Amino acid sequence: MKVVESKRLQKLGSAIFSEMAGWKAEVRQNGLDIIDLGIGSPDKPPSETVIRALEQAVRIGANYGYPTSEGSLRFRETVSRWYRHRFAVELDPESEVLALMGSQDGLAHLALSITDPGDTALIPDPGYPIYAASLVIAGVSPHPMPLRAKNGFLPRLEDIPADVARKAKFMMLNYPGNPLSAVADRAFFEEAVAFAREYDILIVHDLAYSEMAFDGCRPESILQIEGAKETAVEFHSLSKAFNMAGCRLAFMVGHPEAVRALRTLKSQIDYGVFLAVQEAGIAALEEDMRAPDVETKSKVYERRRDIVIEGLRDYGWDIPKPKATMFIWAPIPSGWTSRQISREILYRTGVVVIPGDAFGTEGEGYVRIALVQDEERLREAVRRIGEFLQS
Ligand SMILES: *Cc1c(COP(=O)(O)O)cnc(C)c1O
């Protein structure tokens, strides 16, 4: 028999990413040294404390039983303490915190637990790919909110037609954002919460990058807004904040009914995160409360950002400096499309950057550069791209 991919699956994923994988393979075969500034995976290990906690926890036999999908109470209590410490937000660990196997797990499944096929959701364009993909999986219609430089990459809520807003079940937001690196101020969060309350929409805020910000910027939680817990949930991840991407640990907090819905769905799908990994997560959050290392961690990316932006400026490519995240969202020189210039940069210099339209049609005119190599490699990448631009 022949197995064909479901129509749903065929609609998933960006053609650009698979096309790029082909380019990369070809370039590698040609023997060019590749500097990969494509995928956004942190290149540093977690702290010694975290590694030691994991080491100890894997020695304990009891940690090898099935965990529960909602996460150990100790992990959820630690999350709740960390949120109070970091954002002054109170969370009930029983009803307002849910452990996740990475936020990808939660972001992929949330729509399935709070929408039905044919519903509508508001998503940013450009946006992190799982936002759109999760709607495909759940049969939900996306209503894209264009994010443009002239609006500080914030959605213009007044542009959302009232009938769409009334229908929409939830709105995805992501500040500091990937791929845009934009940050939102409290005024925008207040506006979003008011809008969500008026139209009865759940706000789903992805806060993966709160601990990766520069020049004194300290990103806020949307749950800091008065009354937000009645209309919002927030995703947070240990992946970027504590260099634990491979450990697969994250959490969703906020609106108890949304927490319960996702928890119910997940109880059918998975049996939770390995308890030893949860212990490592507890150690990371506790260490952060005891001796925050945000400065030094952020400094790594701040220095890398400066190397790339100042370096490319010397070659005549002017890119605004992001205040957060490990990404540079670079407006491309005129005369190119995002895809053409990414392809040329790769074939001519071996440097991988992602064409902006991989994240949505509004991403055309940009490329995303991930700061995931050490300073020396980044300097080398800048030199190669600079010489390419001048040729
Ligand atoms: C990296 C990233 C995440 C984190 O994903 P995990 O599954 O927790 O590793 C979530 N959202 C955005 C925007 C990201 O860039």
Automatic annotation (TrEMBL):
Enzyme Commission no: 2.6.1.-
Task: Give the highest taxon in the source lineage.
Answer: Bacteria
Q: Which cofactor does it need?
A: pyridoxal 5'-phosphate
Q: Does the keyword Transferase apply?
A: yes
User: What are the UniProt keywords, alphabetically?
Assistant: Aminotransferase, Transferase
Q: Where is the Aminotransferase class I/classII large domain?
A: 33-385
Query: Is Transferase among this UniProt entry's keywords?
Result: yes
Q: Which GO terms describe its molecular function?
A: pyridoxal phosphate binding; transaminase activity
Pfam families linked to this entry: Aminotran_1_2 (PF00155)
* InterPro entries listed in its UniProt record: Aminotransferase_I/II_large, LL-DAP_aminotransferase, NHTrfase_class1_PyrdxlP-BS, PyrdxlP-dep_Trfase, PyrdxlP-dep_Trfase_major, PyrdxlP-dep_Trfase_small
Give the protein family. Answer: Belongs to the class-I pyridoxal-phosphate-dependent aminotransferase family.
**What is the name attached to this protein's record?**
Aminotransferase
The scientific name of the source species is Paenibacillus contaminans
UniProt lineage: Bacteria, Bacillati, Bacillota, Bacilli, Bacillales
